[in-house]
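Write out this protein's structure.
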Amino acid sequence: MLKKYLEVGKIVTTHGIKGEVRIDSWCDSPEILSKIKKLYNKDGSICYNVSSKPHKNQTITKIDGISTVESAEKLRGVVVYAERSDILKDKDAYFIQDLIGSNVCNADDENVCYGNVTEVFATGANDVYEVTGDDGKKHYIPVIDDVVISIDIENEIIKIRPMKGMFDDED
């Protein structure tokens, strides 16, 4: 089931004396986070109306109702969420949070499954999926066209064609 609210950043410090905060952006860029006008807590029960501008890898954000550095300081360490529908993305793009927990199966034999995605790492050249098997053993899947064949977010299934030696002790 797709989450309604997605983690988009963390308030790391205050900025200035008028209650602004700096948010570490967990989006692809701080520009994406700066376009979001409402931020939430994890379950959506608290809504913050915000205006932001990008600053390096962060945003400087003004939260309605927060006007002093003392009140902004109380928000330090808070993880902020955005409603899925408020985050602009390409048609074929997906959110990393939607991949976590997905079952990773062989594209040529769907009866062969390797485990679930437990982490996604950005390495620069390509992402890498950490897949944890039922035995607790971790495997690392490079997200390249030759290996990752399809991603079905709705059904939480990723089909791969593993490279030789990826899941066994072959040379």
